[in-house]
UniProtKB/TrEMBL annotation, chain A:
<dbReference type="InterPro" id="IPR010230">
    <property type="entry name" value="FeS-cluster_ATPase_SufC"/>
</dbReference>
<dbReference type="GO" id="GO:0016887">
    <property type="term" value="F:ATP hydrolysis activity"/>
</dbReference>
<dbReference type="InterPro" id="IPR017871">
    <property type="entry name" value="ABC_transporter-like_CS"/>
</dbReference>
<keyword id="KW-0547">Nucleotide-binding</keyword>
<protein>
    <submittedName>
        <fullName>Cysteine desulfurase</fullName>
    </submittedName>
</protein>
<dbReference type="GO" id="GO:0005524">
    <property type="term" value="F:ATP binding"/>
</dbReference>
<keyword id="KW-0067">ATP-binding</keyword>
<dbReference type="InterPro" id="IPR027417">
    <property type="entry name" value="P-loop_NTPase"/>
</dbReference>
<feature type="domain" description="ABC transporter">
    <location>
        <begin position="4"/>
        <end position="250"/>
    </location>
</feature>
From TrEMBL, chain B:
<dbReference type="Pfam" id="PF01458">
    <property type="entry name" value="SUFBD_core"/>
</dbReference>
<dbReference type="InterPro" id="IPR055346">
    <property type="entry name" value="Fe-S_cluster_assembly_SufBD"/>
</dbReference>
<dbReference type="InterPro" id="IPR011542">
    <property type="entry name" value="SUF_FeS_clus_asmbl_SufD"/>
</dbReference>
<dbReference type="Pfam" id="PF19295">
    <property type="entry name" value="SufBD_N"/>
</dbReference>
<comment type="similarity">
    <text>Belongs to the iron-sulfur cluster assembly SufBD family.</text>
</comment>
<dbReference type="GO" id="GO:0016226">
    <property type="term" value="P:iron-sulfur cluster assembly"/>
</dbReference>
<dbReference type="InterPro" id="IPR045595">
    <property type="entry name" value="SufBD_N"/>
</dbReference>
<dbReference type="InterPro" id="IPR037284">
    <property type="entry name" value="SUF_FeS_clus_asmbl_SufBD_sf"/>
</dbReference>
<dbReference type="InterPro" id="IPR000825">
    <property type="entry name" value="SUF_FeS_clus_asmbl_SufBD_core"/>
</dbReference>
Length: 259, 449
């Protein structure tokens, strides 16, 4: 079982503090929804977990199975078992989805065993086809350039395909629901639910409650002003759906102003 | 801090000190009269032309100040016997399991093999010495017709002094199944290598021809090459010409190349350049007959202090002609590339379709790529488009790949390979693609070292 522990995390971007003491613990087998209005630091959290160089950690720590990962390179974090499904996956022209995934998979194998010769191509193809079928992706996708000219829904499915292939222990889904129509959302969510299990912990970062109709969270957290201000069960998400973020704002921003 | 005025005393070098030391005695002896006259004319042109300087537009970005022309000597007859031989891997077929013929051009010698079945079709694929002895009428018909020796100092030099070269002739209607291969092997330091390649396809002929220029790596003293490539694609004929430039990094390389494509002829011209210390290459596509089509696909990858300058011209001289040029380059270290391209549409060449694009990926802070597209359109009802870009490796795609556990070096290599993929897709042979990819890998491996 894996545990991701975030303790008193402070993060700045270009000198401006975005995360102001965030605490969160995610274990494999659990699904946590992180909700909050725009500009509250949700994406900063996901990028910081993955080690994007633009985000500077000024205080606090992130532990993965007790090991501080803040000094680790992004690729090391990934090989350790962390995964980020990007809100805006970038296109890499000239590199096919299949070539990219095989490179990523083989990099993992090589990190474990430097002598590894890589997964045999027939085995890789068979595995990839199975995963693509699960996400109802046309097999021709494997030969397309990574995210290049993909529709919004195709990009998000490709993200989940990568997650299914790389088998992380803790995955962060950063606004995976944004820009998806209801059919695409259903397919993507079904993919996540298929992968869900005792070996996978998931952080679903979202602005809307909608995706949580498909991916049932065990825990719901509300982020505001760079911190988690409320935590609860699925009923918290429903309450946000019904009442919006206004009451949270009033409760905590008022407190900040008055306090 | 005020600048101290600097007094620069000009070092005036005499014209003689700056020129090559070749003399009329270096003109290859013997041969038919027309060839002697051709060389003599070229020699006259050579003597009248100074070494180009940056004051000439075509040479504005390629400075020959450091050339030290006096250091180069013409290799003696059979010099190659005492020089490093070409590695066996360069002689392996790049296009199929075997080739229909192979010509090796070396310092002071050559070696020719041709499949008897191909020869029986009337195909001539041989070195210039054999051609002048056995096919003088044909040689007279084709030499100097597409590239004129007076076009430049180095064209004149190659025309006058090339002791050897190659003739490929495909008779009317003959389609050569097996690709042909030649290797120009420029071993030796302080030497001047010259080459003159002649390719002539009669009406309806078809052939694939791969030419590679290479020399040993790690040579310290400079050497040079000046070459001419003349291609003629007859009516309805089809030529695939692949050129690999993998000269050692001690080579100053100059070439004048032109293809003339006749009515409904098709040319697929692929360049790959990874070698030489300095290259100035002129490659012209001349769409001379209506309905002719020319595709030029170029790839260059420079590192260290390499300087590669490719000057391309797409001349639409007849109506209904189509040209399509894509050159892509990546640069490492302190290297520099220049691509300067022009689409010219002659008066009356209506319904032409011209395209040119040059994309550069600058992988080091100290590398520099110049990209200068150009259009000159003197006809109505044409479609011409062009684009040129110089970019750097973006951090976002790298981060994306890192986030999937791919180490940085591998991530960067993947992006560079992806950058070149559109060119690879235009190369019709797995063997050539593999060679290009190996060259990319080799340069990428050195990246950051």
């Amino acid at each position: 079982m894996s545990v991701l522990e975030i303790r008193n995390l402070h993060v700045s971007i270009e000198g401006k503090e975005i995360l102001k003491g965030l605490d969160l613990t995610v274990k494999s087998g659990e699904v946590h929804a992180i909700m909050g209005p725009n500009g509250t630091g949700k994406s900063t959290l996901s990028y910081t977990i993955m080690g994007h160089p633009a985000y500077e950690v000024t205080d606090g720590e992130i532990l993965f199975n007790g090991q501080n990962i803040l000094e680790m390179e992004t690729d090391e974090r990934s090989r350790l078992g962390l995964f980020l499904a990007f809100q805006y996956p970038v296109a890499i022209p000239g590199v096919t989805l299949a070539n990219f995934l095989r490179t990523a998979l083989n990099a993992r194998r090589k990190a474990v065993n430097p002598e590894d010769k890589g997964m045999p191509i027939p085995e890789f193809r068979k595995m990839l086809k199975e995963k693509m079928d699960m996400l109802r992706m046309d097999h021709a996708f494997a030969g397309r350039y990574l995210n290049d000219g993909f529709s919004g829904g195709e990009k998000k499915r490709a993200e989940i395909l990568q997650m299914a292939t790389l088998k992380p222990e803790i995955a962060v889904l950063d606004e995976t629901d944004s820009g998806l129509d209801i059919d695409a959302l259903r397919i993507v969510s079904e993919g996540v639910n298929t992968l869900r299990g005792k070996d996978l912990g998931v952080m679903v970062i979202t602005h809307y409650q909608r995706i949580l109709n498909y991916i049932q969270p065990d825990f719901v957290h509300v982020m505001l002003g760079g911190r988690i201000v409320e935590s609860g069960g699925p009923e918290l998400a429903l309450s946000l759906e019904e009442h919006g973020y206004e009451w949270v704002r009033e409760k905590y921003e008022g407190e900040a102003v008055n306090g | 801090m005020a600048d101290t005025p600097k007094i620069v005393r000009g070092v005036r070098r005499s014209a003689a000190a700056q020129d090559f030391v070749f003399t009329e005695k270096d003109l290859p002896a013997g041969g038919p009269n027309f060839l002697q006259a051709f060389r003599q004319n070229a020699w006259t042109a050579y003597q009248s032309l100074p070494i180009p300087t940056v004051s000439e537009e075509a040479w504005r970005r390629t400075d020959l100040k450091a050339l030290q022309p006096q250091q180069f000597r013409i290799p003696a007859e059979n010099a190659y016997l005492d020089l490093e031989p070409a590695p066996a891997e360069l002689l392996r077929p790049l296009t199929a399991n075997q080739h229909g013929g192979q010509v090796m051009l070396m310092a002071g010698g050559s070696h020719v093999t041709l499949d008897p079945e191909v020869a029986a079709q009337g195909v001539i694929f041989t070195d210039l010495r054999t051609a002048q002895a056995q096919h003088p009428e044909l040689l007279e018909k084709v030499i100097g017709k597409v590239v004129r020796p007076g076009e430049g100092k180095f064209a004149a030099m190659a025309a006058a002094l090339a002791q050897n070269g190659l003739l490929l002739y495909v008779p009317r209607g003959v389609r050569v199944e097996q690709p042909l291969h030649s290797l120009l092997w420029g071993a030796g330091e302080g030497l001047a290598h010259f080459s003159h390649l002649l390719v002539h396809l009669e009406e309806g002929a078809a052939v694939t021809y791969v030419h590679e220029a290479a020399s040993p790596e790690g040579s310290l003293q400079a050497a040079m090459h000046a070459g001419i490539v003349e291609l003629y694609v007859g009516p309805g004929a089809s030529l695939t010409f692949v050129e690999l430039q993998s000269w050692g990094e001690n080579i100053y390389n100059f070439s004048h190349e032109r293809a003339r494509v006749d009515r409904d002829g098709t040319l697929d011209w692929v360049f790959g350049a990874v070698g030489s210390h300095l290259t100035k290459n002129f490659s012209d596509l001349e769409l001379a007959g209506p309905g002719s089509v020319g595709k030029m696909s170029g790839f260059y990858f420079t590192d260290h202090d390499q300087h590669l300058d490719h000057d391309t011209q797409q001349n639409h001289l007849a109506p209904h002609t189509t040209s399509d040029l894509l050159f892509k380059g990546a640069l490492l270290d302190r290297s520099r590339s220049v691509w300067q391209g022009m689409i010219y549409v002659a008066p009356g060449a209506a319904k032409t379709d011209g395209y040119q694009a040059n994309r550069n990926l600058v992988l080091s802070e100290h590398a520099r790529a110049d990209s200068i597209p150009g259009l000159e359109i003197l006809a109505d009802d044409v479609r011409c488009t062009h684009g040129a870009t110089v970019g750097r490796l973006d951090e976002e795609p790298v981060f994306y790949l890192l986030s999937r556990g791919i180490p940085r070096r591998m991530a960067e290599r993947l992006i560079v390979e992806g950058f070149f993929d559109p060119i690879m897709q235009r190369i019709p042979f797995e063997g050539v693609r593999a060679r290009f990819q190996a060259a990319i890998q080799k340069k990428m491996q050195a990246m950051g070292d």
